[in-house]
Amino acid sequence: MPSRHEERGARPAPENSSPESDGSLARLPVDADLEHEKSKKRYRRPLLKSARFWVPIAILLVLIGLAIAGTLAAKQLYGHAMAAKADLEKAIPLVDTVQQQMLDGDTAGAKATIAQISQLTAAAEKETTGRLWKSAEWVPVAGPNLVAARVVAGSVNDLVTNAITPLTAVDLKALMPKDGAIDVANLSKLAATIETANTSVTRIRTSLDRLDRSALVPQVASGVAQLDAAMAKIEPAVTPIHNALTILPKALGADGPQHYLLIFQNNAESRGTGGNPAAITLLTAENGKISMTQQANSTDFRNGRPDPVIALNPETQALYGDKIGRYIQDATLSPDFSETAQIVRAWWAETYGTPVDAVASMDPVALSYVLRAIGPVTMPAPFGETLTADNAVPLLLNEVYAKYPDPATQDAFFASAAKTVFDALLTTHADPKALLTALVQASKEGRLMYSPGDESQAKLLAGTPVGGNMPVDNAKTTDLGVYIDDLTASKLDYYMQMGIAASSTQCQKPDAPTFTSTVTLQNTLDPAAVPGLPPYVDPGLFFPKGHASTDVYLYGPVGSTLVGVTVDGQVIPVSGLPHLGRTVAKVNVLMAPGQTATVAASFSAPAGAFGPLEVRHTPMVKATPVTIDTPGCTPAKK
Q: How does DSSP classify residue 312?
């Protein structure tokens, strides 16, 4: 049976030991334990010398120190932030000022404003790039705001230094012809300059898109929004200039002769990208000098052939029929100008065999814009007509058929008009800003298009109005298409008025959005004028004279499905057909003089990323008003 000491767990005393010899407690009486405890208390270390006191005190002091340091750091960060904010609030509005000065040709004023912006943005960037600032960017809540402030400050400085400043070096006069030629060496220098600006804009956009905007406080979010607004004005300007200056040197023959087909689309007889391509001209460019080397019209080709001149895209043929490849007058039916270019090149190769590097297109309305910049031009004998910005469209698209009833004379008139304007463009010292404004307006309206054979050039123009093709996805913009084709074999579309209303629920119901195009067509021809119409305006071959028969093609967004179609409010059975990655509804309407027809098509799409809603459409003789309704969407960011 264990002893009381063993029950307590005391170790047994060593052999031959005694209480007197080793001080062991193993054999002490019970009262000795109490005495021992009292002894331990008498000899315990003072509290101030104990780790039990100093460890928590040390921790507390560290925390207090960190708090004090954090407070001081926060105060410093706040000071930096306020200084940067003040500089940026002064700098960002000046970006608009310098852009306007550049447009006005005030180079000296633009440079002075840029110097002012640079001082402000450099100071703001310095405030937001210190070690203290960067070390605090990991802090929750505050961190994303510090990152955003740094990105905005650096981006504005980058924008001014590497984008806006180089743009001031672009002299529009250098882009103009001199002695019948354009200085391609100077264009190449400008191309290198604008490349720097474009790289800067791309870099800034990437940085802005990476920001976590959901975590931003209103003050910081406001600064980001201001930069977004500035970029929305600069990006649409820099990208087209960059693309143009990248393409132009080679296109103008810097590396050797280049051959182009220029087709003039007659909007009085509508087709997808404009109208009947009745007149075609071969242009040759070499070392900046452009010459008109050959002219042809639609009657010079073997139309009505049994088979298309080139193998057609099966979807294109199913939608438009094989006439798009059997008659050159129908080569422009597809809204994809690259398809038109392939077909026209095949016609030209079969008939003339001369090489073609690219195909360009313009219409009489675009020609009137150019005349607005270069002034009136007078055609040589036997015509002697003076073309102006005001009379070019009615003369070329309507009055010519009454003045010159013979089709051969009409063709000669069109060829003479084209050559007269072309020669004037190369020799007249037009105001660069006015000419650039005219060309930009024409390209935005789809009246000026260019389809190169060079793949690198084609990539730069992909999805743009100048490239004449719709975007391949909905990421940057969500595009609806409205294209028409005249079936009356007439020039009645001179009197056609088109209006488009587009809407979507992409912001209200992003998981299952719907898109609707509503097209209103009006035959504005006065019924009283029908008897006096020249035969070439309307011969009355297939429909009563003055009646316009029109095929309307309504394209939904990429990946969409047709929901339904109505004509004048009545549901009609239409099956959607695929083309260009989209679903297309095809509807025919017949309109008597003065009559109006309204066609609406609705499309559904699966959940996805949808950019701002836009509309591409056939460029008509008369301007086409377009309204867009996207409830719940914030203003478009471009």
A: P
Own/partner contacts of 293-299, CB < 8 Å, gap of 24 or more, are: 293/259, 294/352, 294/354, 295/415, 295/418, 295/419, 296/351, 296/352, 297/411, 297/414, 297/415, 298/328, 298/329, 299/407, 299/411
Separation of CA 47 from chain center: 75
With bands split at pLDDT 50, 70 and 90, how would you rate the model's confidence at 10?
very low
More confident residue, 174 or 397: 397
User: What CATH code is assigned to 258-444?
Assistant: 3.40.630
Q: Is the pLDDT of residue 438 over 50?
A: yes
Give 368-379 pLDDT, tens digit per residue.
Answer: 999 999 999 999
197/16: higher pLDDT: 197
Mean pLDDT of 619-623: 96
Given a contact cutoff of 8 angstroms between Cβ atoms, the answer to whether 333 and 235 are in contact is no
Residue that has been written with the tokens 């006005």 in this structure: 104
Looking at residue 397, the DSSP 8-state letter turns out to be: I
Q: Retrieve residue 92's tokens.
A: 């960002």
Domain 471-629 belongs to what architecture?
A: Sandwich (2.60)
Give the separation between CA 448 and CA 265, rounded to whole angstroms: 10
β 258-271/496-504 pair status: unpaired
pTM of the model: 0.78
Q: 38-50: buried (b, 16+ CB within 10 Å) or exposed (e) per residue?
A: eeeeeeeeeeeee
CB 332 within 8 A of CB 354: no
pLDDT tens readout for residues 419-430? 898 888 888 877
Question: Which amino acid is residue 43, in one-letter code?
Answer: Y
For the chain, the domains span 4-13+22-44, 54-251, 258-444, 471-629
